Amino acid sequence: MPHSSLSSFEELGELLAVEAVKDMDRVHYKADRKISDLWEEERSALLPLPNVPFEAMRLDSAVLNNYAQFRFEKATYAVPQGKPRQKVLLSVYWNRIEVRNREGELLTTLPRHTCSRAAYRLGSPIRDLFAATASGCALSHVSPSA
Q1: How confident is the model at residue 115 (pLDDT cuts 50, 70, 90)?
Q2: In the chain, how many domains are there?
Q3: Quick one: pLDDT band at residue 108, thresholds 50, 70, 90?
Q4: Rounded Cα distance, 22 and 24, in Å
């Protein structure tokens, strides 16, 4: 693919889609058949996507301190509805943390601190590039070029 200057992620996506369709006419290096023929065989085995959207999350736990706070990923979060030394369950999403008591009742929903800090630390060209993306948390995996 020749290098050209792109002005947006949408333009890059369109360019990659065109290149992917062209690549389907290539002969596979092991199967000695066109990739498009192999794809048609595989397509029948695919299952449909569920109608319910999937939101990735992980479960964790914490114990509130004497000020009804807990530490998570180097950040301190306050749970005003919590009690000192209370054990809580955490549902950790990309942008928020849901805090529940041991019975599963929602105490509070808190924004994740890591997203905004990563955007602030990085230089403005990188911050501007990712400003329009849905997840600022991806910035925590980018190292700024100095």
Answers
A1: low
A2: 3
A3: very high
A4: 5
